[in-house]
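> tool_call: predict_assembly(chains=two)
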Amino acid sequence: MTENNPKNEEKRSLNFIEEIIEEDIRTGKNNSRVHTRFPPEPNGYLHIGHAKSICLNFGLGKKYNGKTNLRFDDTNPVKEDIEYVDSIMEDVRWLGFDWEDRLFYASDYFEQLYEYALILIRKGKAFVCDMSAEEIAETRGAPTRPGTESPYRNRTVEENLELFTKMRAGVFPDGSKVLRAKIGMNSPNMHMRDPVLYRIIHATHHRTGDKWCIYPMYDFAHGQSDSIERITHSICTLEFEVHRPLYDWFIKEIGIYAPRQIEFARLNLSYTVMSKRKLLELVKEGYVSGWDDPRMPTICGLRRRGYTPESIRNFADIIGVAKRDNVIDVSLLEFCVREDLNKRADRRMAVLNPLKVIIDNYPDGPGEEMEAINNPEDETKGKRKIPFSRELFIEQEDFMEDPPAKFFRLAPGREVRLKYAYIVRCENFIKDSETGKITEVHCTYDPMTKSGMPNSSRKVKGTLHWVSAQYAIRAEVRLYERLFNKENPDDMPEGQSYKDCINPESLHLVNGFIEPAAENSQVLDKYQFERIGYFSVDKDSSPQNLIFNRVVSLKDSWTKMEKVK
RNA sequence: UGACCCAUGGUGUAAAGGCAGCACAAGAGAUUUUGGUUCUCUCGGUCCAGGUUCGAAUCCUGGUGGGUCAACCA
């Protein structure tokens, strides 16, 4: 197929799921149709691990000219909420995927699922059990030891039918009865030991309201839902591998269409936790400001931080899909967003830790306007003007009283280029005698070195960014670091938890200055602050009070060099 | 002391019995009005032991190591 087409198909290797799908297409299985689905439970916010699954499922649908459904597996009303449904849809759309008219809910199938249960009961393959949850757990045995059969296991079909009908009718209280499959109690696979199919929960469901008081277990809903939707390839994570025999059993006993389940290894990220429970704890216990805190690995957190959908999709693509456990280095995610933003983010000059610079031989007054390139990687982004004046701010780190040889920045007697402006020489500086802090640097400029002028290209070692003290606007800048200090927060010494390696320095607030061109920035606008990093306008930002989130810093070989020492 | 799954550079991921490749990370250099970008180069890998084969990362057997499974959660 691609063999005669070497031009556009550079023979990209297939992952193991694509190999299975292509084999199924080749052999004409399902009439060579490909239909996948993304099946979240609406009980929490989506994170980067879900993004992997979303990109995989929707990506496969697209690649093989198939379809991908969004289906909410909403079988537990006490844990689920419409808030989560909405956020999940928003996140999937933001990532750039479209389920078109195929938005489904497992709760759409409650009536059908109930019928399936009836089929099993009539076949003598399911029974109503009166044991408590504790009793069921105790009699289930252990992986190395068989369980014991429920005393209610041999009720007649008629009795089971009547009891199950009454369960639905609401005559029994929560927890008093369940419907169980009748498979056996000694399978080495715990999921096959007479698993619970239905439980009684008198709770209002976010979609079906109070219509039902019995709800199917996930295991009894998930596989059949895929079957109902004619999913060809049910892609899920590794921990559901042991559930597959059960799904297959249901499909076979009920006698319905069988999707093929394929399991892949979930994403783990270094310096991050990914479980819903832990993420929820971080929010509830106030370690972060909310689900969309820019330090969270949630999709909404990454969005607020300033990650782009393109960078996340590319990340999902690059990390690949396989069955072996993996921990992806966060630096790969950071690489992806840098790569994307380098091409698209306009450059701006901003000073985060201001140090006043006075150009002694520059006239006091309105100053002049300098021309700056918006994005050197993209000429179509054009140019802008930046005001220059006698008093400026530069970064404190860009001046040293007594610098090492390799310091290419400002120091007494040294020259640097002020980007898009002049070459200046440091003549002297003022130091606070009590604190030892440098408070002001005095320079002279060379008028012949104005950027763009014929004689301007004299070589100097360093180029600094700057803003005009007169014209710059104030901005709050939120600098984020990793939320955890340990590479694997899930693997802590005895007696400690992931919370013990939370990085207390994960957020630094600074008040800086930015060039006036950033004045009308809108929420989620992205910039590269020259020489610093990529920044995104926070949702709390307003024209009166600009707030920027640092998405990621620029690669920095200078501080790296310093650290080695 | 069970069943199932997995094992390739530091981290990911390719190689369908035939040259172990790519990306990130790390290191060196070139270019640069961003110590950014770009470019060049370097470092570094098939868990172990047998077997099959002209030939094994790949197939077989046995180890070892890791993961998953015992909610009326999903």
